[in-house]
Amino acid sequence: MRYVIWCQVIDHFGDAGVCWRLARTLAQELSSGPDLEIILAIDRPAVLGRLVPAFDSANLGRSDTVSMVDGVRIVDWQFPALEVDVMISAFGCRLPHGVLETMGQQDPPPIWINLEHLSPQTWVNSCHTLPSPNPINGLPEVFFFPGFDPQTGGLLREANLLERRDRFHADPQARDVCLAELGVGQADRQLPALLAFGYADAPLDVLIQTLAQGEPMLLLLPSGPAPSVRHGALRVHAFGWVPQSDFDRLLWCCSAAFVRGEDSLVRAHWAAIPFIWQPYRQRDRSHHDQLDAWLERWQPFLSEPAAQAQVSLARAWDRGDRDHLPAAWSEWLECLPELQTGAAAWSRQLAAGPSLVHSLGEFVRDRLESRSPLSHSLRHSRLDSR
Ligand code: TRH
Predict the structure, then answer these.
(1) The model scores a pTM over 0.90
(2) Quick one: pLDDT band at residue 378, thresholds 50, 70, 90?
(3) In angstroms, what CA-CA distances link 228 with 121, 253, 286?
(4) Domains of the chain (ranges plus CATH)?
(5) Which residues surround ligand 1 with Cβ inside 6 Å?
(6) What is the CA radius of gyration of the chain?
(7) Counting C-beta atoms within 10 Å of the first and last residue's C-beta, which end of the chain has fewer, N or C?
(8) What is the enclosing helix (H) or strand (E) of 315?
(9) If you measure from the C-alpha of residue 44 to the centroid of ligand 1, how many angstroms do you get, rounded to a whole number?
(10) Is the per-residue pLDDT at 258 higher than 80?
(11) For residue range 20-62, what is the model confidence (pLDDT) as tens digits?
């Protein structure tokens, strides 16, 4: 059973970040026996190399150098995709020339899934798994939406993630060890930590000035690395960058976070901490609508004052509203205990649903079963009952 995931990196890290997490989780949780093959074809392997240090992007494509990492075969964009059972084009990427034709000549043709971006907006619910015939090869490309509602494919979540999170919190040394690995000094490791992972237009300077006037706190920045700097009561530690496999532990050290894009948004939900999301910037400013849809989803988990505090800070951060950020931060900080309870409740509700890989595996199995008996041998694809 051969899956090929096509990843075209637009910018930043999320395209590669989501595709890698999907590929790795499929390889670990979709057990179709010895013939399972998960292949990730990526057009800018160096971006993946930043996330996955075990992957040597410089060697990809050199002669027959093949990179196998965590059960995933990583290939370059010119990969000759033959005899593929499941084709996943991530975020609607345009498949390399020739792949569309090859797919059309394959018998039976591959199941073709277009893995869409995650959106908190509810319109995705009615579009999930809708097929669209491709004009070149006539094959149905199925739009597969991750999402927050049961009518979608759910969110990427490794089977043992929440148990690992809870074990981390139960271990009195874990946070100190993790922060020490980031280069945080012993005294500063006792402080409550806040991660700020935003886009260049985020008003980080105003946030630092505001935090400097508050209670002692450790601010973690994915820049540098550089020695910690003190600003009033604030310790700012630029830790550089951690491998994607350590990003969850980074979140688990924090009492709160600012995250962005798609993958770190989902990880913050699984960390079940109070957090603010900065959506990926869109030229038509539709990221404001994305944010408002996400803020709407907080309502059932928060009282009116806490929900308003979440809206005020998220909008001030997302819009770069330097004037309102200080007051919005103070208001949010006052609601932190309730924001913590609400974040944990929403996280539990999201975790009660099937993970994206589970939904994807079920969808593929149903499609194969609806085919001719020929595919009976493929029916052994199954998901561990995790
Ligand atoms: O980097 P991003 O802004 O990626 C964006 C979004 O995914 C957006 O939806 C997409 O359209 C655009 O790329 C092209 O944010 P995101 O999605 O959180 O991805 C960041 C990845 O980087 C995520 O997998 C976490 C990882 N990461 C690390 O591995 N180490 C780190 O130190 C940090 C801070 C992040």
Answers:
(1) yes
(2) very low
(3) 39, 17, 36
(4) 2-155+355-384 (3.40.50), 161-351 (3.40.50.2000)
(5) 10-15, 17, 51, 117, 197, 222, 241-244, 247, 260-264, 280
(6) 22
(7) C
(8) helix 304-319
(9) 15
(10) yes
(11) 999 999 999 986 667 899 999 999 999 999 999 999 988 886 6
